[in-house]
Every structure is written in structure tokens, then in C-alpha cells.
Request: fold
Amino acid sequence: MLSRQIKHMRDAIPRHVTYLYISSKQGLGLNKRNKKRFDAQHMLLLLAQLAYNIAVWARNQLAQHSATIASFGMLRLIRDAFRISGKVQFDEKGNVNLIILNQSHKLAKAFQETWQSCFPRDDLSLILGKI
Reply:
């Protein structure tokens, strides 16, 4: 009886959900990161959950400004969208005050528009420039 319930549960999970889980692990680079100590493994799991939640939040925000990003899975999001070249400038106290993204990257404009809509009065500026 238990095996029939497990089979029913397995069959009830859509195939795309399994694919999303696998691509999320690949996108975050978690498929080969195992630690021998339980505490280290647990910390790795918590960090992975945090990274996943931040990436999903960023994708949802970016999707409002780019239809291309809306169709990205986790692997492609991290591989293509989160690897825009740029420069970071610091003030005299060592705080980040300016981020310059490569203007020739096809997704840089979506990042800039998203930044401006999410953080309109922030002291940190994000601009597009030639890198």
C-alpha cells in the first residue's frame, strides 16, 4: 500500500518541476558540493536556499523590465544575466557608491531599469558605461 502511495505521489509531480529543481541546483553550482560534517552540510544548504531565494526575487524584478529574462531558468539566469561585466567604485570610507555595467551587454538596460524602480532614492548609483 505504501509503495502505491509513493508511486502515486511521484506520478503527480509534473516533469517540469523536476527539471526546474535540477536546473536550479546546476545554476547555483550545488550538484557536487558535499561536506563531511553535518554542520557544514547544513550551512551549505542554508546558503543555497538564500542564494536561490535572492536569485528568484531578482529574476521576478528583472522580468518586469525584460521579457527575455522572464523566460530564463536558474541556470541561464546565473550564466547569462548575472555575469555582466562592469566596474565598482568606492568612496573614501570604502563604501560602494557607483556600479557601472557594460552598456553593450544585451541585459544591462534591464538591470539599470530594475535598479531604478526598486531603489529610486538609494545612495548607490547603477549606470551603463563603456567597459
